[in-house]
Amino acid sequence: MPELKRPMINDALRLVRLYWGYSQADLAKDLDLSQSMISEIERGAKAVTLDVLERYSGKLGIRMSQLLFFAEELETEPAQRRGKLLVAGHVLKLLENLAPVNL
Predict the structure, then answer these.
(1) Burial (0-12, 13-18, 19+ Cβ within 10 Å), 71
(2) How far apart are CA 101 and CA 65, in angstroms?
(3) Where are the transmembrane segments (predicted)?
(4) By the 8 A CB rule, do 67 and 56 touch?
(5) Which domain holds residue 33?
């Protein structure tokens, strides 16, 4: 069976979630979706509906058109560049955790 191409909107929503520092469970709660639904969307197992896109948009303060544009930009990036974006999110989170706490 040929491998299906994963839509970039799914990757874009995952990267945006990671950038804002949400776990799947936290974002699911805020979007009134199940954590398994978020996981399925991010893996490309479930299609992204306009309703879901609108929920992400409202929660994260990003216009739906910007989310779609970001997904289109990811489509044109080579795979190694997309991987760097994912790693960058983890590095930022690590640095935030290591930063001294202001007393």
Answers:
(1) buried
(2) 37
(3) none
(4) yes
(5) 8-98
Rounded Cα gap, residues 80 and 67, in angstroms: 21
For residue 69, CA distances in Å to 46, 96, 101 come to: 20, 28, 36
Tens-place pLDDT, residues 57-90: 999 888 888 888 878 777 666 655 656 666 666 5
Q: Provide the token pair at 28.
A: 């699911």
Within-domain flag for 3: no
Whichever domain contains 72, its CATH number is: 1.10.260.40
42-56 pLDDT tens trace: 888 998 999 999 999
CA 40 to each of CA 6, 44, 62: distance values in angstroms, whole numbers, following the listed order: 12, 6, 21
- Does this model's pTM top 0.85? My answer is no
Residue 59 lies in a domain: yes
Q: Is residue 45 part of a domain?
A: yes
